[in-house]
Amino acid sequence: MVRIAVTGLGFMGKTHIGIYQQLESAEVVALCDDNADSLDIKSLDAGGNIKASGGEVDFSSVAKYSDFGQMLKAGGFDAVDLCIPTHKHAEYAVQALEAGYHVFCEKPLARSMEDASKITEAARRTGR
Length: 128
What we know:
Elements: E1 2-7, H1 11-21, E2 26-32, E3 63-65, H2 68-74, E4 79-82, H3 89-98, E5 102-105, H4 113-126
Parallel strand pairs: 1-2, 1-4, 2-3, 4-5
Helix pairs in contact: 3-4
């Protein structure tokens, strides 16, 4: 079982959560969004270019954070799924990799070669 922390609870974050719920080998154990109001997820319904409708959900037993660094320190998961705006990918991916977690990153990986290199170098350096 892969324990996953999903960061970014907008359209794409809800889409990823819906997919994880369909996988027997994955469990969402932590949610993070810098907008604390987004942490009160009752439905996976979201707008966007993919039909994302999962009806009612209960995340009352899932750890919730509005601070990414605090979530990384608390741990309890194997991988971080970044569903945040692209300009934050490098910063958050490097932090998660250096904290010892695997990282799934919504596309695109980065907005520049420099940021993409930061992520890939951190992945090589940490073995994640």
